[in-house]
Amino acid sequence: PYSMDLRTRVVAAAREQTQEQVATRFAVSASTVRRWCRRARDAGSPAPAPHRGGTPGKVAGAGAQALADLVRDANAAT
Questions:
Q1: Which residues of 24-63 are buried (b: 16+ CB within 10 A; e: fewer)?
Q2: How would you class 73 by CB atoms within 10 Å of its CB: exposed for 0-12, middle for 13-18, buried for 19 or more?
Q3: Residue 11, SS3 per DSSP
Q4: What is the pLDDT of residue 59?
Q5: Across residues 55-65, what is the average pLDDT?
Q6: Do the Cβ atoms of 14 and 22 come closer than 8 Å?
Q7: Sign of CA dihedral 26, 23, 27, 43
Q8: How much is the pLDDT for 77?
Q9: At what angle are helices 30-43 and 19-26 packed, to 10 degrees?
Q10: Alpha carbons 61 and 45: distance in angstroms, whole number
Q11: Cα–Cα–Cα angle for 40, 36, 39, nearest 5°?
């Protein structure tokens, strides 16, 4: 995600300029400016939403421990 400093500066600039001008100035897309402004308005901050989790891992139990041991012992292998 983009830094909070950039998000905050973009939202502040969007109060004084058009979103398209702000997008050009900060080298982000206009849709990103709109999304950050909407998030700042709705949530009170342009901070990214927390990660929602994703899919669970494919390896579990003893297999997960064996994989962790292999990575620890031979971390250069891909």
A1: eebebeeebbeebbebbeeeeebeeeeeeeeeeeeeeeee
A2: exposed
A3: helix
A4: 86
A5: 85
A6: yes
A7: positive
A8: 57
A9: 110
A10: 40
A11: 40
